[in-house]
Amino acid sequence: MARIIVITSGKGGVGKTTTSAALAMGLAQRGHRTVVIDFDVGLRNLDLIMGCERRVVYDFVNVINQEANLNQALIRDKRCDNLYVLPASQTRDKDALTKEGVGRVLEELAHGYDFIVCDSPAGIEHGATMAMYYADDAIVVTNPEVSSVRDSDRMLGILSSKSRRAESNEEPIREFLLLTRYDPARVEKGEMLSVDDVQEILSLTLIGVIPESKSVLTASNSGVPVVLDRESDAGKAYSDTVARYLGDEVPHRFLQVEKKGFLKRFFRG
Amino acid sequence: MGLLDYFRSSRPKGSASVAKERLQILVAHDRTQRGRPSYLPKLQQEILEVIRKYVEVDMNAVSVKYEQEDSHEVLELNIVLPDTVQGRI
Ligand SMILES: Nc1ncnc2c1ncn2[C@@H]1O[C@H](COP(=O)(O)OP(=O)(O)OP(=O)(O)O)[C@@H](O)[C@H]1O
Ligand SMILES: [Mg+2]
């Protein structure tokens, strides 16, 4: 049976899709059969980040409405055999996602995969609640910024009250904090909330810190999940995050400003 | 302490600490709202409508306070009537 992971945030544009693509690719590369689903119906862009936009024929809503079967809609990744993408529809709206429909599709996928990664749309309304409803695990993507942290906290409230697990009194969803777009230099100057600040407020298990990095845009420009860029800081940080998710103990990197040359060290004492 | 740190420490503290303080207050407030039954806003609205059948009051005349204690919940309704009406009732 697959484990269902939702990538959620409340606030928009914080890095959910970037994270969904990286996590799914990372899991698949480690040999786990993985499918990543775009729940952002109407604004689909996971396929762009994954670089498979030209191979989209049928989408998630087609499968829910039984206009296509899963095998017709799933796109196999060209770089990794264990990875499949279920794209979102561009023409429907989020109401096309029904609890029953989503449940049916996840149920069918659960038999053939180890992990199902759900890329949530922004907001706390219907689309976002559909993405998290069936989750076993939630990765709450947060930027070190007031509105993002606040929305993450609200999302935590929703995860613990409106999910399938909450409604059926099962063990609650496991919740993890992923801090993204982290800029250690600004943190050092007191211009940005630190990892500790955010953790103190949200008190969640920290699964990773992804630095603000130019490599993320480069990766999205070319449709390659950034985790495949092994040279980049963001790629490495995502890779560590995947390892931690799978239970490895990996120390956090990129939390401090990189040591510069001799002069700077001299002045810093 | 390095030379740069010396200059640094004389500057006002960064905006991050302001952000943190604001967040602590915001989140604490959000969390108290969270456990509230979802019917409260509607209840408040309907009570206000009933009162308005008899007296003219503004939107803020009715306040609903909800608190959860260990074994029970407390619903506190506060209705403020305008001074001028009091004599009539
Ligand atoms: N670590 C990072 N460093 C630099 N830029 C980043 C980082 N993470 C995300 N971004 C950029 O932020 C923007 C939003 O990212 P992304 O689309 O993943 O967010 P999202 O949460 O899925 O947004 P939405 O809520 O609209 O679905 C993109 O332009 C992306 O390139
Ligand atoms: Mg997105």
TrEMBL record, chain A:
Pfam families: AAA_31. Interacts with MinC and FtsZ. Residues 3-151 form the AAA domain. ATPase required for the correct placement of the division site. Cell division inhibitors MinC and MinD act in concert to form an inhibitor capable of blocking formation of the polar Z ring septums. Rapidly oscillates between the poles of the cell to destabilize FtsZ filaments that have formed before they mature into polar Z rings. The lineage of its organism: Bacteria, Pseudomonadati, Pseudomonadota, Gammaproteobacteria, Chromatiales. Keywords: ATP-binding, Cell cycle, Cell division, Nucleotide-binding, Septation. One of its GO terms (biological process) is division septum assembly. It comes from Thiocapsa roseopersicina. It comes from the Bacteria. GO terms for molecular function: ATP binding; ATP hydrolysis activity. GO terms for cellular component: cytoplasmic side of plasma membrane; cytosol. ATP binds at residues 11-18. Belongs to the ParA family. MinD subfamily. The keyword Metal-binding does not apply. This is Septum site-determining protein MinD.
TrEMBL record, chain B:
Keywords: Cell cycle, Cell division. GO terms for molecular function: identical protein binding. Pfam families: MinE. One of its GO terms (biological process) is regulation of division septum assembly. SUPFAM superfamilies: Cell division protein MinE topological specificity domain. Belongs to the MinE family. Prevents the cell division inhibition by proteins MinC and MinD at internal division sites while permitting inhibition at polar sites. This ensures cell division at the proper site by restricting the formation of a division septum at the midpoint of the long axis of the cell. This is Cell division topological specificity factor.
